[in-house]
Amino acid sequence: MLTFVGLGLYDERSVTVEGRDALRDADSVFAEFYTSKLLGASVADLEAYHGVDIEVRDRAGVERDPEAILRAAEGGEAVFLTAGDTMISTTHVDLRLRAEERGVDTRVVHAPTAESAASGLTGLQNYRFGKATTLPFDYAHGAEGVPASVTEAIDENRERGLHTLVYLDIKAEREEYMTADHAADLLADDYGDVLAVVVARAGSPDPLVAADRLSALADRSFGDPLHLLVVPGDLHHIEADALAELADAPPELLDVE
Fold it and tell me: How far apart are CA 50 and CA 35, in angstroms?
C-alpha cells in the first residue's frame, strides 16, 4: 500500500488525525519538499513528533527514479509525505499512477491547502476563483519581467469577474522564497492601481492578510514566508466587507458588483 499524506500548511501538528495514524502504521516513510515546504517544522521535528524515520527524496528521486518508494509499497505500508495537500502537484499524481500500474493499492489523505486558506483568511469565496497561476523568479524563467502566462491568467479571470490566486515561486533547495512585496513590484508595472491581497504564513499562529493597490503593497514588508497574492475580480458585498475588516482594504478600491 502506498498512502499519500498531506502535511498541511505549517508545522508537524498541521497534519490531520487520519494522516497521523497513517504515519504511525507505516513501515517506511518518504517525503519531498521541493514543491513546497513546512516553514514551522524541520524534518527532524516531523520525525520526533510522529516517531518515524523519513527519507527525503529530491525531484529526481521522485519523478525519474521512484523505485525505492514503489518497492517499499509493494512489500509493506509506505507513506509519501508532502506539504499542503498531497495531490496538488502533478508529480504526485504520476507517482500514484506508477504504483497502480504495478498493482500497488494507493490512498490519499488530504490536508489544508494554500488555496483553501487564501479563501478562508481573506473572505473571498472559493467558488469565485478562476485559474491560478505561479509567478516565477526572473532567473527561473530566463527572462525579465512577468511571463505572459501570468498576465494572461489575471486578465482572463478579471474579464470574467473572477479572483486570481498567484502562487509565488519557491526554490526550497536554495531556501529562497518569493516575498509578496517582490511579487507586487513585478506586477505593478501592468497592474499598479489594481487591488490585490497578500496572504502570509497561512496555517501558522500569526497569519497576515493585507489588501491595497499593487503599487502600495510593493513598498511594504510582510515578514517571514510563505507568501501568496490574490488579485480579486468582481466583489460580492460580503467579500468587500471581509476585505475591509480583515485586510484593511482602502474603501475606494472596494467596488461591489
Answer: 22
